[in-house]
Write a structure and sequence with these properties.
By secondary structure, the chain is of the alpha/beta class. The chain is 51% helix and 10% strand. The chain has 47 helices and 23 strands. Helix 18 (510-530) runs parallel beside helix 20. The longest helix has 43 residues, at 538-580.
């Protein structure tokens, strides 16, 4: 922003200067004009250190409300301006009196939240805080990366570059009763400072300085300084991300938050009253009974989710309230009302700290202190009243018609637009240096503002009982201010509340319940078919033994994998968030989770057990007892498995790592059970006592074989030994007199121990956390510059029009109208802004204009009426190629790429193939600078676990990606949300520039600053709640419209704020009916105006024909361009995620090491044959799961960015994507397969030579690749990775059972289907190669007593029923089947792309 010199200032007309000073001075509670940041009389211009200035700041008296109102009214009358709307605020100059009255609302009002006795006051002090970026810690490349010890990397660290700082020498104060606003440009360190204030810095080191809290009411002897960690129970923190339960309604979410956060003695009626008022304060009444929603269920809007998150904190009683960007995503009216509520809470002895990006001007008086940052350095820190005198002393004075907050951000931010960067960089550097030289001294001279010096207790305004409603009196009696104690509910009440909450959230998750039921039935039927109608022959007895073991991994593995995902991706995220606020103990949460999940888990297990028991013809004598044992065993197995999955997730929150831990240990558990390996090594044998496999296998085996005599007709000799149940138990080394109940009790006890250990870990150990990303050195940074800035792309001008558009949601005759009869024009060459409060349908209208598909949820549908035209022609499906859509969500970017890399890849893939690579990269650099991303160009984007660029920078990156190819129609949903005011203005100017080149630009916007309104917008579509139109047309017609409905826009007011206030319903108290009638009147008036306009157009005759839309296509990005780029992007993203990279490479070799550790070198004695059977079965079965786990760790992020690029009309095909992904995974699979073969083929002592080795490795690769294909197919079907993992695991488990390698009793018709799987061919290759020429050494005694069941390779082949020994033929078929499954995966991707 340009500075205003004293000379320029003197040229401001005297009338304007006088009016500005007279109105804003009282508002800012300071008689000094300079304190308001506004022009002052000529005698003081340029003399900021004059006595008059200091006297004005330090000696200002508080202004009574009556005096404020009289001065304001007199001035309004003098200028012949009438404030038309009660409760509507304007720009800095004319705040309506109702808002001033709200700022000092008397406690005698029926405001329950503000009438609660205040918490104990604490003063916050930040002293010279410096926070660095941690240096990268080298780790050992293991599946669970282990940091290299300090002494081994000390020398290397000494040679590293100096530590980079995020914030440096930050000092700030915020006393009780004050509200501190932390403002600054994107990437200035605001969120980092907030995290430091609440003590949640994760791995970021505090290099210097401190953060402390001092209790205000303690005596001098009792006074002590508390750290953020010790203040954890007294701080309420609202994060940027919303962590909410998807299946609760808004009201229920707040009810449970109040129940957990408010003191125990508050009655249900009072708690309900607080919840009700919170809903009204935050404008959530219309959404109060709507579910929050999530990935698979549509719920409330993004703005409503933001307000709900804030509401969950507002219902509590913190001494310190900290909020990170609480107004992002909210419309201007709701944002102001929220800030007003926070200000009122601060006046009740709370310390309120928040970050802001684009506050409206009327919010400025609400802040008591300002902390202004620029790239981690302080530009100003102190009382609001001293802010503008400080800048005036540096010859920086704002204009008379600017938003003070916008000006502060503008003046302290580097403007990276061409021609302005160097000047702005010098200005910011000078401001930082000036502050460090004497800023604190200047501010400290005015510390005693309004008689408060930081050590004086602010007198409390105490309400008499006669002025308080019943709820407030009750609370006042329960909470004693002098001896404050939150005294939240005890553990028993916590358990009840958490159980109720979890129960509702669980049983409204219809998808999960249906999946659980279907899964149990499908798995049960599949296992029943694999062991169908077992008889009493030796072969069937062998199958029954296998069934007694196989039911455990077959059912519980799926439970294990899904539960780990559920804990890592959902449950523990919410648990960790609420535990940070110390809402409850660990034990109540564990108990509530257990009890709420128990019914569906018990029913699912019982259904599975019943199907399996009767389909397989298990033991029918003493049916009730044996069936009870089987059902109980499965229920207890499930209980123990979920306990173990919680234990794995408690150790590590990363799904890939937690699942790896679980998989590795499950193999040990399976091998120690005594079914597959009769005599495990001594160092493995002890594992059985902590293995659910051991207890479950023995309980069911004893139940099925104890004292049982099989018929075994026509069976004689040694083979008849297997026909006596007790003999079978003896062979399995199970005592024949053991009771199954012992093992069932052991299962239950094991589950309890696992939950207990998990609880201890959850209470004491906090793994993971968000890590800060480092900058990446780019070897080609800045080499390419824009070549003339010309894209050489010819785009046609397209006028978009909406006619009579009505859009509604319908489920079972429950209809909700989202857009109602919308008529609007979006001319080419202009920017059209869609404005309206939250829930007005802005995002929905944009999605319709962009031809985006929307998910209505189960059993629901969307209904559309009306027409969308392009240059007068009805829109067609191929019209999508003309539109680029920038959505609100920014989570599709690859986290391990830098900003520059992201844009360059986008440019190469999106721009026409006729452009050279150099010009494409030049275009990426041009857009990088245009949107102010040059400062973070070489910083990783970041994601859930890596803190990269800021939210505002990620928003700009999303916009930059879509602007790369300069589309004919650019649709942007909230382009300024999450951006500071300067960057928001620059973004809108960039969009304006794009529009002026002939493009059609359509945006939705929540909080446009006045600069944006005047310079960045041409047309306005104003929507009210319910999608009804309040105005549609040129911006110039807005003023006339407002006057026509009786609400003229006052002078010097931001018109955008005014019209948003005008069409917003204030849900607080008596204002609701008034504002609702006002909105109805405005909408009705516009319908009349619109009807007249349409009638006039009809009488004018046929309009002139518009230019016909030409649908051009260059055929998309060809393979030879797209595939190398996609491969490079995938590999770079994977390499920088070291844990995922190494886990992907090592899963198969680690699995082989575990098998080798358990089986050791296979012997050629009596048990050699049985050991080989167990070894091969256990080795082959999990390899497909390894492929799935590898896929789950990588594929979702690549899938998301590809689908986003498809929706954005990026021109490469599904075949290019699938082929690129295949080529990236192939080296990992080959290396992993070769290492696995070395370990399990050579190391375990199987027969080998060059041919056998490579055929073995090929079979291992095919199984892994097949698992990856399954992961891709099901990953495309659903974005919910928990459902995805469940489906894939269930499918592979079924294939394993039906393949005929586990059970010899599979029906013939089912065994034929298994020829369509890789598992059958891979097993044949391995078994045939091992059996050919195999000779075991068994004595005659070992043969007679049944210990040596397999004497040579032929017996092994006979056991499997393999007669065709042509392994080469099987390898060829296996290759064909593997490729076929990958082609099928491509078909799934292609079908999904067609539906987008």
């Amino acid at each position: 922003m340009e500075e205003i010199s004293p000379k320029q200032e003197q040229q401001v007309p005297q009338v304007q200067r006088q009016s500005f000073v007279e109105t804003l001075t009282p508002l800012l509670e300071d008689r000094s004009p300079r304190a308001s940041g506004l022009p002052e009389p000529e005698s003081t211009i340029g003399h900021a250190h004059s006595d008059s200035v200091h006297r004005g700041v330090r000696g200002s008296d508080s202004i009574e409300l009556k005096d404020l109102e009289s001065r304001y009214s007199a001035h309004m009358q003098a200028h012949d301006i009438t404030p038309a709307v009660s409760g509507v605020s304007g720009e800095a100059k004319y705040p309506p009196t109702s808002l001033l009255r709200n700022i000092t609302t008397d406690m005698a009002s029926k405001d329950i939240i503000n009438s609660l006795p205040p918490p104990p006051p604490y003063n916050l002090s930040v002293e010279e805080l410096t926070i660095g970026v941690p240096p990268p810690k080298p780790v050992l490349p293991l599946p669970i990366p282990i940091p290299i010890p300090e002494f081994l990397r000390k020398k290397a660290q000494n040679s590293e570059a100096p530590l980079r700082h995020i914030v440096r020498n930050i000092s700030a104060k915020c006393d009780s009763g004050e509200m501190l606003a932390i403002i600054g440009g994107s990437g200035s360190g605001k969120t980092t400072v907030l995290n430091a204030i609440v003590g949640r810095l994760a791995n970021l080191p505090i290099e210097h300085g401190s953060i402390s809290y001092s209790p205000l009411r303690a005596t001098q002897n009792e006074k002590k300084i508390l750290s953020a960690r010790r203040m954890k129970d007294k701080i309420g923190f609202v994060k940027q991300t919303d962590t909410l339960l998807a299946h609760l309604t808004v009201r229920e979410t707040l009810r449970y938050a109040a129940a957990l956060r408010l003191p125990a003695g508050i009655s249900t009626e009072t708690r309900e009253a607080i919840v009700t008022q919170t809903i009204e304060e935050l404008g959530l009444r219309d959404a109060a009974d709507t579910v929050v929603g999530g990935t698979l269920r549509k719920g409330i809007s993004g703005g409503e989710r933001r307000r709900l998150s804030i509401g969950c904190i507002l219902v509590t009683m913190p001494s310190v309230l900290v909020a990170d960007e609480p107004t992002t995503g909210l419309d201007a009216t709701t944002s102001y009302n929220l800030l007003l509520t926070l200000s009122q809470l601060a006046k009740r002895n709370r310390t309120v700290v928040l970050t802001l990006h684009q506050p409206r001007s009327s919010a400025f008086p609400l802040f008591d202190r300002i902390l202004l940052l620029s790239k981690g350095r302080v530009v100003y820190s102190g009382h609001r009243q001293r802010c503008f005198p400080w800048f005036a002393s540096l010859n920086h004075v704002p204009g008379s018609d600017v938003n003070p907050m916008d000006w502060l951000i503008d003046v302290s931010t580097v403007d990276t637009r061409e021609g302005r960067e160097e000047e702005s960089r010098q200005r910011v550097a000078a401001l930082i240096d000036s502050w460090e030289d004497g800023g604190l001294d200047f501010v400290n001279k005015g510390d005693s503002i309004d008689g408060v010096d930081g050590n004086t207790i602010v007198p409390e305004r105490v309400m008499s009982d006669s002025n308080m409603n019943a709820s407030a009196v009750e609370v006042a009696g329960l909470l004693h201010v002098e001896n404050w104690d939150l005294n939240r509910i005890g553990m028993l009440r916590q358990t009840v509340v958490l159980f109720s909450r979890a129960n509702k959230n669980m049983y409204r998750n219809y998808g999960y319940m249906l999946t659980s039921a279907a899964q149990s039935m499908v798995l049960g039927v599949a296992l029943g078919l694999a062991f169908f109608r077992l008889g009493e022959t030796p072969a069937d007895i062998q199958s029954l033994k296998m069934l007694c073991f196989q039911y455990v991994p077959y059912y519980t593995y799926l439970v294990l994998i899904f539960s780990i995902y559920k804990f890592c991706a959902a449950d523990l995220i919410i648990f960790d968030r609420e535990r940070e606020d110390h809402l409850y103990a660990v034990a109540p949460w564990l108990i509530s989770e257990l009890l709420s999940n128990a019914p569906i888990q018990i029913i699912s297990a019982a259904v599975f057990a019943l199907i399996v028991y009767f389909m397989t013809n298990m033991r029918t004598d003493d049916l009730a007892a044996n069936l009870f044992i089987f059902i109980t065993a499965i229920i207890m197995e499930q209980f123990a498995t979920i306990g173990f999955s919680l234990l794995a997730a408690s150790i590590n929150r990363i799904y890939a790592t937690a699942s790896l831990i679980a998989n590795a240990t499950q193999i040990f558990f399976a091998m120690s059970a005594g079914a597959l390996l009769i005599r495990p090594p001594p160092y493995i044998d002890w594992v059985k006592y902590i293995s659910s496999y051991y207890f479950g296998f023995r309980a069911v085996t004893i139940s099925q074989f104890q004292n049982r005599q099989f018929l075994c007709e026509n069976v004689v000799g040694i083979a008849r030994n297997q026909c006596e149940g007790n003999q079978v138990l003896t062979g399995l080394r199970i005592p024949i007199d053991h009771n199954p109940g012992y093992y069932l009790a052991g299962l239950f006890g094991l589950g309890l121990v696992e939950y207990l250990i998990s609880g201890i870990l959850l209470a004491t150990y906090h793994p993971g956390g968000v890590k800060h990303a480092m900058q990446v050195v780019s070897l080609d940074r800045g080499k390419e510059v824009a070549i003339g800035g010309d894209l050489d792309i010819s785009r046609q001008r397209i006028d978009v029009e909406v006619k009579g558009l009505t859009f509604s949601w319908n489920r079972r005759n429950n209809r909700k109208t989202i857009l109602h009869n919308v008529n609007a024009k979006f001319p080419a060459g202009q920017v059209t802004a869609i404005l309206g409060p939250s829930g007005a349908g802005k995002s929905t209208l944009l999605q319709i204009l962009s031809s985006r598909s929307m998910n209505p949820g189960p059993f629901a549908r969307f209904e559309t009426e009306g027409l969308v035209t392009l240059n007068g022609e009805a829109r067609m499906k191929k019209s999508r190629s003309l539109v680029a859509f920038v959505e609100q969500e920014d989570d599709y970017h690859l986290p391990a790429l830098t900003v520059r890399e992201t844009l360059r890849y986008a440019a190469i893939l999106r721009l026409p193939k006729s452009m050279s690579r150099k010009r494409k990269i030049a275009r990426a650099e041009e857009v990088l600078r245009m949107l102010g991303l040059i400062e973070c160009a070489d910083t990783l984007v970041g994601g859930e676990l890596v803190k990269g660029i800021s939210g505002g920078e990620k928003r700009r990156l999303s916009l930059a990606v879509e602007m790369i190819n300069d589309p004919s129609i650019l649709v942007v949903d909230e382009p300024t949300s999450g951006l500071d005011s300067l960057t928001a203005n620059n973004v809108m100017l960039a969009l304006k520039s794009i529009a002026e080149s002939g493009r059609t630009v359509i945006v939705s916007i929540h909080q446009p600053r006045s600069d944006i309104w005047h310079a960045g917008i041409d047309n306005v579509i104003l929507l009210a709640k319910g999608g009804r139109t309040a105005y549609s047309g040129p911006k110039a017609g807005v003023e006339k419209m407002c006057a026509s409905v009786g609400w003229p826009i006052p002078e010097m007011v931001n018109p955008a704020d005014w019209i948003l206030d005008m069409v917003s319903v204030d849900n607080r108290g008596e204002q609701e009916n008034i504002t609702r009638e006002r909105v109805k009147h405005i909408v009705d008036q516009w319908e009349i105006t619109e009807r007249k306009s349409m009638e006039e157009l009809a009488t004018m005759g046929k309009p002139v024909d518009a230019t016909k839309v030409i649908y051009e296509s260059d055929g998309g990005t060809p393979f030879y361009i797209s595939i190398p780029v996609i491969i490079d992007r995938m590999l770079r993203n994977l390499w920088r995620q070291q844990p995922v990279f190494w886990v992907r490479l090592q899963q198969a070799p680690l699995l082989g090491c575990i098998f080798l550790l358990i089986y050791q070198r296979l012997k050629h004695g009596a048990t050699g044959g049985q050991d080989r059977v167990g070894f091969i079965l256990q080795m082959v079965s999990p390899l497909s799961f390894v492929g799935v786990l590898n896929n789950v760790a990588v594929f979702p992020s690549d899938r998301d960015i590809y689908f986003h690029e498809v929706r954005s009309n990026t021109g490469y095909s599904a075949a290019a994507f699938v082929l690129s992904f295949t080529l990236v995974e192939l080296p990992f699979e080959i290396v992993g397969s070769l290492l696995f073969t070395v370990i399990t083929n050579i190391g375990a002592g199987l027969q080998t030579n060059a041919r056998i080795f490579f055929q073995y490795a090929f079979a291992v690769w095919a199984l892994q690749s097949n698992g990856e294909s399954f992961g891709m197919m099901f990953g495309v079907v659903t974005r919910d990775m928990g459902v995805n993992v469940s489906l894939v695991s269930a499918y592979i488990s079924i294939l394993v059972q039906l393949s005929g390698i586990v059970s010899a009793s599979v029906p013939n018709w089912l065994s034929k289907l298994a020829w369509g799987t890789t598992l059958k061919y891979a097993t044949r290759i391995i078994v045939v190669n091992e059996a050919t020429g195999l000779q075991l050494n068994c004595t005659q005694t070992e043969i007679q007593n049944g210990e040596c069941l397999i004497q040579n390779g032929q017996d092994l082949l006979n056991l499997f029923g393999f007669k065709d020994l042509r392994t080469g033929r099987f390898c060829a078929i296996l290759l064909a089947v593997t490729i076929a499954y990958r082609i099928l995966a491509w078909a799934f991707v292609r079908a999904k792309v067609a539906s987008l």
